[in-house]
What does this fold into?
Amino acid sequence: MMYTALHFQRTVGKTLLGLVVLFLFTSHTLLGQTSMGPVFEEGNAAYNEGDFGKAATLYEQVIKMGQHSAALYYNLGSAYYKLNKVAESIYYFEKAKRLAPNDEDIRVNRAFAQNMTIDAIEVLPTSQLKTLQNRVFSALSLESWALLTVLLAWLLLAAIVAYLTFRSSRSKRNFFALAMLFIVGFIGSFSIAMSIYNQQEETVEAILFSKKVEIRSEPNERSEILFLLHEGTQLQVLDELQEWQKIRIANGSEGWIKNGSIRRLDAPN
It folds into this structure.
């Protein structure tokens, strides 16, 4: 039994480095989600009074102050929606969705904003396995999965300490069972959090802010024009070559944009 407890400790030690990295990332994000203070409330007051331009300016100030939250991005997206600024509205609704993937208000208002775009792009169908994975991944935000991982790690350590401390065979069995439960949960949540993090790092998603751009087959102006895109379109940036960017849209179509005005969703603001 002592060997089992030491095995638990070694397992925790092996994942500690990755957990610390994830925890530091989460802590940095959560610090930005603390109370946003009077400027945010002033923005809300301006929004309620119908002064959407002032509200948007104040919300942008809050972001420049280093504050970030789903509520802030949602309010800013709503203000830009009222101002008929398509790209800005979709951009901030998408950022809000990343922090609160299951928020119904964000989902509905994001759909309204997307209806203002000119391009109607059908999303490629996904397999049942991929759909299930997406549902699991989107059950919580990345920050929430990371917090759950940290919580389970602490509970696992507490169960190990209790197992080593208590003398009763019954107590040891109970804490051993708890430790097994916590380690399974820890590995699962840690794996999901790291998968989401790596996915976001590897996939550069962005919103197109250019009014209209030509998508070409090659990164030169002599190549064929494949299609046109308009502001508010969500896309992935696959590659860059000087002033050219290779992009992919939701239906799988790819091409090159020259000097396109694109804002990445992983940007600070």
Notes: The radius of gyration is 23 Å.
